[in-house]
Design goal:
- With 144 residues, the protein is an all-alpha fold.
- 0% of the residues are buried.
- Helix 2 (21-69) packs antiparallel against helix 6 and helix 3 (72-81) runs antiparallel to helix 5.
- It has helices at residues 2-14, 21-69, 72-81, 83-88, 90-100, 103-137.
- It contains six helices and no strands.
- Helix content is 86%, strand content 0%.
């Protein structure tokens, strides 16, 4: 019985490997790499989305609070109600607008916009990296 097993193993070692075995293995590795990159991309985008939502809610609350406590709304309503006074004293009115602007909320909005632009920039860079990697490996299936 052991002789039959040894003969079978010797015959098995003498058989050549299938032609497409190496290509199949490399294709499977490329597909797994692409899937891993896709999962990272999805994770990055979902993290950015949830960060954006939480920062937007916080920014909205801060901006609403500052707008209600500042005199900016009063000056804005004056510009719409008494346009004659606003036009005749436009220099003082503009200075009053600038003085009453909620600076911290606007800076927070600017920071939020920069954060969103930065996330979008990194997302585009990551997507282009995935596309370059995909064009080199040429897997059979696509995840994009």
């Amino acid at each position: 019985m052991t002789e039959n097993l040894e003969q079978a193993l010797r015959r098995l070692q003498q058989l050549p490997a299938p032609n497409a075995l190496l290509e199949s293995i490399l294709l499977t590795i490329a597909q797994q790499k692409e899937l891993r990159l896709f999962k990272r991309h999805v994770t990055l985008c979902s993290l950015a989305f949830f960060s954006f939502i939480s920062l937007t809610v916080a920014f909205h609350d801060i901006l609403r609070e500052e707008m209600t406590t500042s005199a900016f709304i009063s000056y804005l309503s004056l510009a719409y109600q008494d346009t004659d006074i606003f036009i005749s004293h436009w220099q003082n009115a503009i200075l009053s607008f600038l003085d009453a602007l909620p600076i911290y909320s606007l800076l927070a909005g600017l920071f939020l916009s920069g954060f969103i632009a930065l996330i979008f920039h990194f997302s585009v860079l990551h997507y282009s990296f995935v596309q370059k990697h995909r064009s080199r490996s040429k897997p059979a299936t696509s995840f994009f």
